[in-house]
Write a structure and sequence with these properties.
By secondary structure, this protein is an alpha/beta fold. It has two domains: 82 residues, Four Helix Bundle (Hemerythrin (Met), subunit A), CATH 1.20.120; 189 residues, P-loop containing nucleotide triphosphate hydrolases (Rossmann fold). Helices cover 47% and strands 14% of the residues. The protein is built from eleven helices and eight strands. It has an eight-stranded mixed sheet with strand order 3-2-4-1-5-6-7-8, with helices on both faces. Helix 9 links the parallel strand 5 and strand 6. The longest helix has 17 residues. The protein binds guanosine-5'-triphosphate and magnesium ion. Magnesium ion binds next to helix 5.
Length: 303
Amino acid sequence: MAGTSLIGRLRASLAKGRDLLTGDIFRTGGSWDAAALDELESRLLLADVGVDATEWLIERLKRSRTDERSASAQLVDLVTELLETVEQPIDVRADAKPFVVLVVGVNGTGKTTTIGKLAARWSAAGHSLLLAAGDTYRAAAIEQLSAWGDRTGSIVAAQSSGADPAAVVFDALSTAARRGTDIVIADTAGRLHTADNLMDELKKIKRVIGRFDAAAPHETLLVIDASQGQNALAQAAEFDRALGVTGLVITKLDGTAKGGILLAIARQQRIPVRFVAVGESADDLLSFEARAFAQALVGAEPA
Ligand SMILES: Nc1nc2c(ncn2[C@@H]2O[C@H](COP(=O)(O)OP(=O)(O)OP(=O)(O)O)[C@@H](O)[C@H]2O)c(=O)[nH]1
Ligand SMILES: [Mg+2]
């Protein structure tokens, strides 16, 4: 996808009249005076940027000289600088066969949908895929994953609902190894991050994957829902502590979310953001690019 259209799609999703920077912020003509900084500060906090990242930005703007470039370009540069610390695309290594991705996250954040989108993306790139139905709580979860399997031409490894998720995933890995499949993506049930017994089950799945290949899972991908704001941040901390999260997907940026949560993540969690999602269909998963996201968030027009 071309850079411009990426910004455009993010703009359409994030903006909706909620740009961080709009003309009316400068009542005295395009400079970062105290009133403009105050107004920006409250907009940042309202957009889920969080206190830490907001202070980081405001401090830097205070020290900057505004006449050099437009204030908007300055803010885009600073937000980009912050977001670049978590801009690190996923590296699907060909020498890891299969490359194993374990997908985790609380109830309803978009795990299964994200797996479908990843399958579409990676099969279009020429990889063979196997989707492991590690959410065995509900029959509907297995059906949902199977539908994505059909749609993307991926094999789905599933057992009946109620089966041991770790066993499902282990069998899936054996099947993938036998068939020479490139990538295995394991779905898991939605978890309450405060429920230790459920987190224990995820740890067990991870251990079983490690027994299959000591280097796996090669990616432990946490899916968080941007509209959950600071709660999503708490989930990132909790899952990281329990499982060691290697990448994030931030979903539902097309909804009421303001997107500032990514700045809070960059300041506080420092976990690479692999993808952002702006809708329910296969092409609504975008590779995370710091500058494009910064432009969309600030409300700058695509260059
Ligand atoms: N608007 C919007 N909806 C999304 C996005 N991602 C997922 N959804 C929707 O969110 C709902 C939940 O998605 P799932 O993929 O089932 O979420 P899950 O994490 O697998 O849920 P559980 O398996 O119940 O834990 C579905 O209706 C999805 O279509 C997104 O980026 N934008
Ligand atoms: Mg699911």
